[in-house]
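Reply to dn_fold:

You asked what the input looked like. This is it:
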Amino acid sequence: METLEDQAQDINQLLTRLTEFHLLNSAEGAFELRDSVRRAGLAYGVRADLLAIAEGAVLTVRHPLAPSYTETMRVVPELSRLDRVADCKFLVDRIISGELTAADADRELAALQRREPPYPAWLRIVGVAMFAAGFAPSVQATWREVGYSVILGAVMGVLFVAAEKLTGLRSLLPIVGPFVIALVAFNVLHAHRAPGGPLVLMVPAMFVLIPGDFLCAATAEIAVGQLTPGAVRLAQAAFTLVELAIGVVIAAEVSGVSADALFDSAVPPVLPFWLVTVSWIPFTFGLVLTFSARMRDLPWILGLTYLAWFAQLGVTRLAGPTAGTFAAALLLAAAAGVLERSSRNPPRIVLIIGGFFALTVGALALRGLATLNGDHTIQGLNDLRDAISLTVALTLGLIVGAAPMQAANFRPRRSRSGASDTAG
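and this is what came back:
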């Protein structure tokens, strides 16, 4: 029979591992981190408090009959294994319902962390290509855009998968990725001679690196008072955008392409609207493969992607792009909040990721930074202004849409615990 000291050690080890797990997968914001760890702690009769920044956290566990425990950890957040994120939600639900001892829960979480990816590397490369090709018609509705996106997306897929195994490449991918993509686009596909400009042809392939999600997560964290992780994440997103733009500019200089060639111009759409609509299916399927989401979650991700996209289209035609982005984000967050309450459905981050990418504005910011390198300063500044405006609208929509479900989730937990759970 375990002693009180052994039980406390099991709880401490579980909460430490759970904190590290959530921190690793907090690229979309640390909103679930504190709540999930606290709820798990309450299930074992302890109080867990967290002081979190973007890439680190201090965990304090207060036991009623054992010494307090403090652990400091540092983990670089990423978003590559959505299957683990979904299964962790179900594990935490079992912990809260009292099905597992702390030792058993820790063993299951450790096994979850060691689990091999659900898809082989070659299939994930195909997924990145599908992800790019599916997004392409919404950037420029031409067959040229789709064809370039398939080729460049496959190149990016190789780099993306290789970066997960090569630590050096992983840290340099935001500049190496666009550099390689731009070299292929300029020297093999001659994208600088294409109507509309080359950058618009490269954006779908670079979409997995564009930190539109980081920008929105950062502004959302700042808006709800999580100033330290929000500010750090905002600086990281801004620097990543600069790296992406520099990679394209260096490739243009190496290839002998004038900086003015990076300027984009409108191209009349060629693809029919129904084909643009259908393209979100390979986009979502590619997203599932790219980020290793569970295939059973595909219908939910696809449904919410269409919800966000159609809402944005409809409201934009009536009231403009800022209102359209806000309304779409509000509906996306509200729908995900309702669906997440079911014990059978995946967590919020998995549910909203397709719609989030469909609404993200990082590509607009990237275009603005690259355009500033030429003689089109006004256009570049206008793109950056629009990106900031839409980022704020997207963030506020997500916050407002999630607020009702967050309030509903909070009230029952207070009544069950019989004490306030808001400190820390």
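Residues 121-406 form one domain.
Hope that clears it up.
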